[in-house]
């Protein structure tokens, strides 16, 4: 059951709300914002806070300035963009919490918006310094976290501040948490998880937990080769994590114990070199030559995976099926993306590269939920919450 306080539950009229957002937008060499998606996505929470009469103090990180002031990573262009989108002035002084910031915040009226400078200009943010958290908390009455993408990080603005103030989550985080909670606790059955990408290393705990709620798990991408190696297949020069073969074997045993069917590729597009122009042929899983590199899933596998996608009523997808950045080896990822998009199931896509694939193929509008947090979504699916969510004030139960 979801029990965290949300922005909808609180009376914030006249209160100073410190709103942690993820305005880590892409910038070009000239410092221009190349996509305002993250700012647009935040507008509903900001507008709700304005409507409720809060004094809104926005804070975010941008890039990796590594604890030093670096004008390349200033939030100034973001404040300007937000101001344009809201058709309302957004106060910005290029400072974090300093005496002059406090003066401006003191003079704020209901519905006013003030944006602090990049949190990561202060080394205390990533170090989770109690002094920096205290400074941030000193300008607010309530803390609201709407930055799902960093909720797995123990940073001052994520875990330090909510330990000091009454706290809640914003609309974006609510949607993320709601989608993942439904997936893991009350999904429409059967549930299919499609996993791919390059490494098992960061995903072991997630895969283990996925076996608790999925009926079938498809494994593609480079990851599949470590699992095939665990089943005793020779996969040539495909990318295998030698030190994870034993874990892959253990995961396959757990799946069997839990009655979860794991599907691995039955054929492959292989090349002799890892380049975008490499010649390729299609082989079956038993047919690897010692020099073959698996670059993508083959046509028989695509057909099989599509059949499974069409049978599922809930689908979670993380990770590409092949080296999709090379057009020649993007067929498997494209076919899976299109089938997921077409499916009538509830579909959730999480993780940087599968989200990138969905957007590259123009399928965003056909997915039920696209997670804004790559690392955070995988961490949440491990089943132990997120440090930044666990610390949020619980909802007050009404009898
Ligand atoms: P991850 O960050 O773990 O989601 O992995 C994404 C990366 O996996 C992408 O850059 C893909 O190019 C890569 N990938 C997928 N399939 C393969 C493969 N068969 N061999 C090597 N890399 C792959």
Q: How would you state the average pLDDT, rounded?
A: 96
The total count of strands amounts to 15
Overall, the morphology is elongated
Poorly predicted spans: none
Write out the strand line-up for the largest beta sheet, numbering strands in chain order.
Answer: 3-4-2-1-5-6
Query: Helix- and strand-based class?
Result: alpha/beta
The succession of helices and strands, N to C, reads: EHEHEHEHHEHEHEHEHHEEEEHEHEHEHH
Nearest-angstrom radius of gyration?
23 Å
Oligomer: single chain
Distance between the termini: 16 Å
Named once each, the bound ligands are: adenosine monophosphate
Number of helices: 15
- Strand percentage, roughly? 15-25%
Q: Strand count, sense and closure of the main sheet?
A: 6 strands, parallel
Q: What is the helix fraction of residues, given as a range? A: 25-40%
Topology:
Elements: E1 16-20, H1 37-51, E2 55-59, H2 76-86, E3 91-92, H3 99-106, E4 113-115, H4 123-126, H5 130-137, E5 142-145, H6 156-160, E6 167-169, H7 171-185, E7 191-195, H8 204-210, E8 216-219, H9 223-230, H10 245-257, E9 261-263, E10 267-271, E11 280-284, E12 293-297, H11 299-311, E13 314-318, H12 331-342, E14 346-349, H13 352-360, E15 369-370, H14 374-380, H15 387-390
Parallel strand pairs: 1-2, 1-5, 2-4, 3-4, 5-6, 7-8, 7-13, 8-9, 13-14, 14-15
Antiparallel strand pairs: 10-11, 10-12
Helix pairs in contact: 1-2, 9-10, 11-12
The chain binds adenosine monophosphate.
